[in-house]
Input
Amino acid sequence: MEFSSREAIIKAMKEYTFRRSVDYRVYESEPLTFYAKCTQYGSGCDWLIRVSMISRKYCWVIRRIFEDGSRGARNLPITALVKATFYRFNELFTWKKAEAEARINAGHVFSEHVTAKLHANQLALGNIQVNCFDRQNEVFEVREMPSGVEYAVDLRRQRCDCDWQVYVHDVYKMDQIRRVYRARFRSLGNPTTCPSYSGPRFVPNPYLRRVAKGRPRMTRFLNEMDTRMLHRPRRCRQCGD
Output
């Protein structure tokens, strides 16, 4: 969407938020670019937009950010990227942990995908007879029918006479999956109440900043080959001087 003035684009953004019942705030503002997001961003609402001026057309443009997960990420401030990643990981861990606990409470041992694979393999096995020799040590004898071939299966040591391992490892069990997502995220809280930072200060390289006018600078990080080439005298490829 393109607009002719800053006032027109702010009015359009307000009308858009009213239609969606979104309460927004501007968290980064520049002369020709500013960002706005919902006050509930990270808690279920992913409304995040960027408004910028296009110098060639001399018009203001509204773009939706994170609509596909990564579009516009390179133009976002570092703080916004860290916050967005933090809240998305928190949502993922909370959802995965709740899903694992629900399957455990329902009596399932493995995940839904592994359970479906087990049922499919059982249907493809055909007619077999299983005799238990040592239930405590999980040792069984399997006899294929009607061929009568017998195999000794040791589930605890994951060994079988037919040289096939037990496919379902403990890592696929729901209790193991729940342990992966047992980490809890702490809320970021109000930044003004955070203790003062006394660690090292990281200063960005000013030569890697994107220029507003003229030809863009090369932002590729130089390696040893580029360093050797820079020390050589520059020569014209046309005349050789």
